[in-house]
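Suppose you are handed only these lines of text.
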Amino acid sequence: MTPNPTIAWEDRADVVIVGGGVAGLTAARAATQAGQTSVVVCKGGPVDTATQFAQGGVAVVADDEPSAAEHVRDTLAAGAGLCDEAAVKDILEAGPAAIRSAINAGVHFDTGADGEYARTREGGHSRARILHAGGDATGAELQRALLAAVRTQCPTRFFATVLRVLTNDAGVSGVLVHDDRGYGVIHTAAVVLATGGVGQLYSSSTNPSGATGDGIALALDAGASVADVEFIQFHPTVLFVPAVEGRRPLVSEAVRGEGARLVDARGDSVTDGVHPLGDLAPRDVVARAVHERMRTLGTDHVFLDARALPDVAQRFPTVTAGCTDAGIDPQHDLIPVAPAAHYSCGGVVTDTHGRTSVPGLFAAGEVARTGLHGANRLASNSLLEGLVVGERAGALAAQRAAEITDVRAAEVSVPRWRVVDRGALQAAMTTHASVVRDAQGLTDLLTLLDSATERALPVDGGSQAEVRGIFEDAALTVTATALARAALARTESLGCHTRSDTPVSTTSTDDARYDAAEDRSPVDVA
Ligand code: SIN
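From them, the structure of the protein bound to succinic acid can be written out as follows.
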């Protein structure tokens, strides 16, 4: 029996947003515009988000496209048969309005010599439709502008960890938080999870250190469903620096969109004959081709050749800075790259307005599974989804808050989390659940995860780093368990879930879908 925490402080908010990237900030803006008080709670600092590191841009129907139909077609093709077509249409058709709203919030997208918004191309897109900012600093620009807009409108609490979404018979009643004052409760009827992804499940990732699957763990704990968590997208061109693990700099797919080529150490193309779109094939295809070439040649990286691009440093300042730090000049040197964990295509099951199966609990952005991404997300659809669904979820959360004004979380208990050592978990995930998986490896992974031991939170508070660390390890263990079980259950190769021991499918078999919420066993709570 885990003792209840000592609650040092209490607060009340109409809407609590957990996470401060594009989806969370957009939700906060929408809730505030709807007249409700929202508070943004983030366990990291103001720019410790995946949004901050997003490079390529925001995919949205181009001005010269008659409708969203082509963008929908590209998204469905990349998603390998697992997208929800109605959700794809709904979200993509809402794109232009979401972009206007972001521009109103102060986001500056790059323009060309003609004064029109500049558009680039990335993998899986049949045309150049991707808006970008600061060359390849699109996420940083969104983060800057949205944070500035939100900070004038509602409180933001950084370095505060949400440990549990509290519920009663009517749905959400509050959140249990730990910050520099110890444990506290914010009473609220509406919570928006915008916690981002799961990249820290792996030894190398493009994600920030806080991408530990928190939203998936919180949602499962609260009784919501998750789906498609086995579909982890590996970005094919992440800067390879020997012996460096943790967050690694991305080399945006837009570099290939502007003409760079993927080659091996002999100078041979990596993707010739693999897919009609070559280096600009959907991301799962290119990541597999890179993985296969590395395996064949016995190397740990291939190369991106961007030397023929006119002014790499000006068009791609973020990529150039990452390369410079590693002693590489992309205008003159080949850039060593290898796949690394990048994006979680599945997550907490929501509709296209961010509603989960728990009343009052919403999810938006990478943490959510709306049906837009299917088995493999189309490049640059994620920032768009964060803008569209974040705004809708914030507005709906505000509506619920207006309807339920007297909510009060009753008894607060601490989850009884079980954890596996983080280094061991990351090593096992990297070996057994990366670009290519098989049943034996996934079974070995589950054996490790089943050995998780109980780790109680300190009842009287403890340091912020200690509590955050325990919670993150628990969230990683829950998320890895759900992912491994889902990957084992899906006995087909589909999108970015490639099983070396099963055939490739082009359409999904829904009976291969594992339901963590129905199973409940990854969530061993008091
Ligand atoms: C990139 O710039 O290559 C990443 C864009 C994305 O993940 O959508």
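What can we learn from it? Residues 464-489 form the longest helix (26 residues). Residues 55-56, 122, 250, 252-254, 343, 379-380, 382 surround succinic acid (CB under 6 Å).
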